[in-house]
Amino acid sequence: MSMRHLAPYGKDRFDYIQSLDGFRSIAILLVIVFHINESYIPSGFIGVDIFFSISGYIITYGLVKLHAGNGIDLIEFYRRRIARLTPAVVFVVITTLIVSSFVYPSARLSEFAQTGFFAVLWASNIFLFLNSGYFDTVSQGNMFLHTWSLSVEEQFYIFWPLILIAWAKLRFSIYFILSLFIASLFGAAYLSHLDSSAAFYLMPARMFQFIAGALVAIAHIKRIDVGINPVWVAAAMFTGLCFVFFAAAFANGEHYNFWIAALAPTIGSALILGAIRSPAADWLSSPVLRFVGLRAYSLYLVHWPVIVITTYLIGADKPLYVEAGLLVLSFLFAELVYRLVEQPLRIRNDAERLPNRVRTSIAVLSMVAGVAVSAAIWNGSLPGVSNNAVTVVDADSYAAAAQRANRERVWRGRIHLGCHLNATASADDYNASLCMAENPSGRGSLMVIADSYGAETVVLLEQIIPPRAIMPANAAGCLPIYPEPHSASRSQGCLEFNVFRFDAVRREDVRAVALATNWRWWTVPQARSTIEYLASLDKTVVVFGVRPIFSEQVSALVGTPGFELATSALDPYLLVDLSEFNEQLRSLADEFDNVHFVDIQHVLCRSGCRAVLGNGEVIYIDNTHISAAAAEWFGVGLRGELGPVLSVLNE
User: Fold this and answer.
1) Which three-class secondary structure string do you get for 160-193?
2) Mean pLDDT in residue range 297-320
3) What are phi and psi of 543, to 5 degrees?
4) Which residues form the Acyltransferase domain (predicted)?
5) 3-state secondary structure of 296
6) Which of 49, 461, 490, 508 lies at a C-alpha separation of 20 to 30 Å from 280?
7) Neighbours of 607 (CB within 10 A)
8) Is pLDDT above 90 for 235?
């Protein structure tokens, strides 16, 4: 029995199921529409979860069938996976980097090249996990953010055949695979509680989704489904669709709930796959759905770079005709990749089959080329690419200044002293003896309770309040919500740190509190409960309002064609409109005599959101955090507004 039967597509492979291509089309359309405009399908990212289950089904079905025949040739299997997937991803990475070199400043281009480098090596999920989160606003501008899921799949393909071979040789029952599913499911659920980013990005936390498809494949091979009443099969299809649409409607990337966002689409996918061979799935075999499904891989590869580049050039607020154009462009470019790269390298039958050595050579050479080009651009050493073609502003000097400003923010914001935790730290990493020390003057202190906005808030307050009277209690990515919502997306370290700082704020020597956070991720009830709690402690409370959040790092936005540092505003690139939430915060603060509201966005964007101060200093170090110089300028201007805080600290 030939290994060619493992090909994802092909006229001569056994048990080719047309409706599987239709199911793929649903998954890819969910993802594309979500990426074009989240408001249409706020949870369209579950399309990736569906892909994982489909992949588990297809790969397991082929491998188990092969083992029952002439056995599995592991080397051939791995070679085929690399030959099938690598050339297309390398083609897209190199093409995208070359196109981007005419649009982006080289500093930002170098960041893309880093991700592209690891994408070619099927490790971008690990790189992205170590450097950012999928739903972070800065990550949304990463050209190759979407390749994380492809890396997860390829990593799964490495060891899953080994498990199946062991399972078959040891003659374990299907319950062995079922036990793996249960163990990986609850392991992923536990990990999502400890570190939601790890649960999202890393392959072990996604195993249960592949295994769900694998279980269905084994059931079909063993013909466990034979004899089931067609009515029940149709009911399984309908129930599966309900699970998928439930997840698409209620999963939330901002407040990631594992059971809704990951388990629900997996259950739905397994039920649909269970009915995929029955007449109940015939509607998935329609020509239109199959056309889209056959191009799902190419569509997935090209759609995100198309969206990111367009958003960078015209801004985050895209009219409907632009969104429609993005869909059309994605299909056009996908067709090119499908015709030029996927189809020529795909095995269809023995007569058309390229020799294995040729296909393997193409895959290896493409991987080498992808690594070489990505590494060259990463290091800024590729002639004609490392220097950006945009010359209207010196965007690279802005990027360099932003990097220096970030280092200064780290030191002046006391991050290096352990007063500001990173996203993966535990409460034990906080240097309480230093950061929560009593004011040596014997007067009261002000506690800063913040997420990643805390560093610049400390610098800002130091322009008004003696540094020794400021107690930073900040943690990146940890929203200071009271009472703690215990969301599945909250890490254990964040839970513990929130308990600590909301208890510490009760101390007698803490006379005032500053609350600074990325309000984008809050609900009004959460804001109310937190402000009410702080106000009830009879402290003077300062609530810093919303900040501008841009769709891309400002160091890259200043390099867009026609942007002038002195005159151009960043308003077209505002990612979200939080003005209504800002007014709600103001109203909340007005309800309490001891709560004072500071309107940051009004000051930063009074005459348009600018990229530099009047003296040429950079304002933003990324897409929302401000530099120490901007915080200084802000703090000096707020001296009058924070008079009540000064008064209570001087008592």
Assistant:
1) HHHHHHHHHHCCCCHHHHHHHHHHHHHHHHHHHH
2) 90
3) -105, 115
4) 18-335
5) helix
6) 49
7) 6
8) yes
- Strand ordering across the sheet containing 595-598: 420-421, 470-475, 445-450, 510-516, 540-544, 595-598
Q: Which phi and psi (to 5°) does residue 197 adopt?
A: -65, -40
- CA–CA distances in Å: residue 343 to residues 12, 84, 88, 290, 354: 15, 10, 10, 15, 11
Tell me the C-alpha distance between 621 and 122, whole Å.
Answer: 30
Check whether 137 has a pLDDT greater than 50: no
Neighbours of 442 (CB within 10 A): 7
Answer whether 461's CB lies under 8 Å from 446's CB. Answer: yes
End-to-end CA distance of the chain: 86
Which residue, 608, 607, 609, 599, is CA-closest to 634? 599
Within the chain, all domains assigned CATH 3.40.50 are found at: 406-548+577-605+639-645
Q: What is the pLDDT of residue 239?
A: 95
Percent pLDDT > 90 in the chain is 44
From residue 27, alpha-carbon distances to 16, 51, 292, 309, 615 in Å are 19, 7, 10, 23, 50
128 pLDDT tier (thresholds 50, 70, 90): confident
Residue 393, pLDDT > 60, answer no
* CA distances to 456, 481, 623 from 459, in Å: 5, 23, 19
Residue with tokens 């790269």: 341
Q: Which CATH class is domain 406-548+577-605+639-645?
A: alpha beta
CB-based contact 87:360 (threshold 8 Å): no
Give me the residues paired with residue 544 across strands. Answer: 598
Structure tokens at 443: 């007067």
Residues 600 and 587: beta-carbon distance below 8 Å: no
* Cβ atoms of residues 514 and 448 within 8 Å: yes
User: At 246, phi and psi to the nearest 5?
Assistant: -65, -45
Q: Which tokens belong to 561?
A: 């064609």
Burial category of 277 from C-beta neighbours within 10 Å (exposed 0-12, middle 13-18, buried 19 and up):
middle
Task: Please give the Cα distance from 450 to 521 (Å, whole number).
Answer: 13
φ, ψ (nearest 5 deg) of residue 255: -125, 75
pLDDT higher than threshold 50 for residue 18: yes
Higher pLDDT, 383 or 442: 442
Q: How confident is the model at residue 471 (pLDDT cuts 50, 70, 90)?
A: very high
Is 480 in contact with 507 (CB distance < 8 Å)? Answer: no
258's tokens: 């594992």
**What letter represents residue 600's amino acid?**
I
Q: Tell me, what's the pLDDT at 272? A: 96
Distance CA 81, CA 60 (A): 13
Backbone angles phi, psi at 9, to 5 degrees: -135, 160
Distance of CA 136 to the CA centre of its chain: 6
